Amino acid sequence: MRGRTLRSDPVHPPPPPRVALVTGVSRRAGIGFAIARRLLADGLQVFVHGFPSHDETQPWGADPAGSDGVLAALGAPADRIGRLASDLADPDAPAALVDAAIARFGALDVVIANHARSSPASLADVTAAELDASWAVNARASLLLVQAFAARHDDTRPDGRVVLFTSGQHLGDGMPDELPYAVSKGAIHQMTRSLADALADRRITVNCLNPGPTDTGWATPALDATVASAMPFGRWGTPDDAANLVAFLVSGPGGWVTGQVIDSEGGFRRSRVTRDPPGPAVG
User: Fold this and answer.
1) Residue 147 CA to chain centroid, in angstroms?
2) Residue 86 belongs to a domain with what CATH number?
3) ∠ CA 237-72-28, rounded to 5°
4) Which amino acids are annotated catalytic?
């Protein structure tokens, strides 16, 4: 009987880890932090962006742990995390951020444009300077991030993903007391389908999320109670609620969804909230 040579199947190396860039990761209570933490848990390498100087000027303030404390709280090994602080009002900052992420990890597969400039101003109060500032940070920077990502993306890597963030300006009575914010977030809403079509042939999806009223520590006790009473589940949204949806959209199974603006608000009943607006989600 002749001896037979046993052949084993070739051993293929595991695919390289996917890489995500998440903007607006400045506070442990924020949506950006929850997204970065979730993507790290899902096995991605994550490059985070923040601009604590902006939070310092807001009523909620900067994270008391500082930038180093925020990064440490993500609990990631040093080889799976990167960071860059920058002001996305600078037109060169989005491309520099994409370049920094690729320099750190060698590739970039996912962009989450979670950053936001909050701007309370009514029609009587709005100024050209604030309109320009909100447009630059919220709308222009988001579009330039997608442009830089598209220019540098390696299409041999599967599952390219972009997730943008809008707000509830297109629902109910809109946001008449936050016009610069609402107008700039409305632009993000409207650019989503066009960007999705521009990148569809490259198998890169683009979606946009309105996370609804989200408890990131900015609301007054009175507003907290008012909005909670208008939520069927009796609570505000949490940063983890937004992170869970983002995790699906950037996953392999999420690849069939593109060009969509998703209102993930837990059934928020705006008609039960009086004139005080629910305000920004605050990343």
Assistant:
1) 16
2) 3.40.50.720
3) 20
4) 181
